[in-house]
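User: Hand in any protein.

Assistant:
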Amino acid sequence: MLATFAGADGKALPGYVDPDSEMIVDLQGQHRAAFGTSNLAFESMQGLIEGGARVLDLVLRTVGAGSAEDAVTYPLSAVRLLSPVPVPRQIRGFSLCAPSSGEPPRDHGGASATGAKFVPERPQFYLVNRFNVVGPDAEVEWPTYAGGRLDCALKIGMFLAKGGKDIPRERAREHIFGYTIFNDFSAREEQCRGADTRVSATGKSFDTANVIGPWIVTADEIPDVGALQATVRVNGEIRARSSTARMRHSFEDIIAFVSRDETLHAGEFFASGVIGGTVGMEVDRLLRPEDVVELEVSGIGVLRNRVVMHRRMRA
């Protein structure tokens, strides 16, 4: 598992997570301690991703090098995790999953407004603000235009390992770096007011809206991303249980689809679409200020955030 955390000076540092010991290794610090020099690939998670298999091998060598006394490690509880890639190259949100009710996922604009049955024959996506990304345990600020209708949604996130164009489906898995969790906070009232397409980014790009984390699990550690269990908890109460088996289109499908006549780049982020039943609109239970939202996916981990009132609304 690979994570990004804030160093003592606030700089984003890539690390290797040992979930059993709940420790994180500072990869650049460990490389310096073990080999006496820094490595450019460990300057950021983006650099690590771009380094490909060679750098992933270096990660394992670095973590295993040197003595335990020299290891540059910290308890996970003692560091502040950031989004694995704090500013992704691109964020595409897809409509890939069947909602639990058989109706269109409620976070997709016009489809929920009309109530029409909508089963996309091919992947559809929207773009959101890649600069408004936060990580685990970050506070999500209720946007002033949300009224009383703020919602969350559990999605699987995938980072591209390498770029390409016209990528055949049978080679697409080679382009998957790893998986994480994406919480797509949405101002539903703003969506209903302004969305006129089936898949819309309206109300999804306010500051702190896009939460990615807690880390990246590399593709080799998850042989079947379509066989994961998903749970949503709000203030400790289970709001939903579901499965990634509801995905209509695989990540391999969407890589092949999007790369038609379009060059993709390492570090781009693709979100799966709502895992059926895990969005509040489907069960008519939206969020409230001070709610603590936990999204858990088997094989990946738990992404936790607290919703707070916008600073201009606290007075």
